[in-house]
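Entry 0007
Protein: TIR domain-containing protein
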Amino acid sequence: MSYFTLDEVRRAFQNAQVKNAQAKNALREIAMESLNEEAAAVRDSDNFDIFLSHSLMDADVVAGVKSILESQGHTVYVDWIVDGQLDRHAVTPKTADILRQRMRQSESMIFATSESSSKSRWMPWELGYFDGLRQGRIAILPLVASSGATFEGQEYLGLYPLIELLPVAQGVKRAFVTKGATSREYLPITDFQKGVTAFKTR
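Output (structure tokens):
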């Protein structure tokens, strides 16, 4: 069992920012600016592999999760990066309409749960909407404080599989969908987002 740790995903975000700054040979005024520029051309016809549901209070952590998933070849929707005009602090019909559209454009949902999740106004709504839209394509990604920490989320999250980091080579781990910490069954995220339900055994 190995979940995403807060330090690990923050480091991934910082590393992505350093690489981006070197490639463009410029410093950004704020850490998120380059990500917003990346997403400026997103259209309603574009598709995403993953809709990353999260608490805005976990912004730096979520940016790191996005970076890790993208390094594995997935396209990831994060609302405040792709649609910077959204006001997640206010529950409005306009914001809900845009989020519905982006969920329809996404093949799967990863629900990044942390201590901040229970304070989110949007996460339960996003989970419910996506469950009705693409049942069987939601996985829970626990964000834990330290390596080896256990995950005890809200009871309803137990209905869904988990995202865990599994070893694929010496010292190398990748994110997979699993049936939980006590199970040896797993599924590549690429298969999961297509609706594949036949888990493999490790």
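Curator remark: The helical segments are 6-24, 33-38, 59-71, 79-82, 93-104, 123-133, 189-193. The first strand starts at residue 4 and ends at 5.
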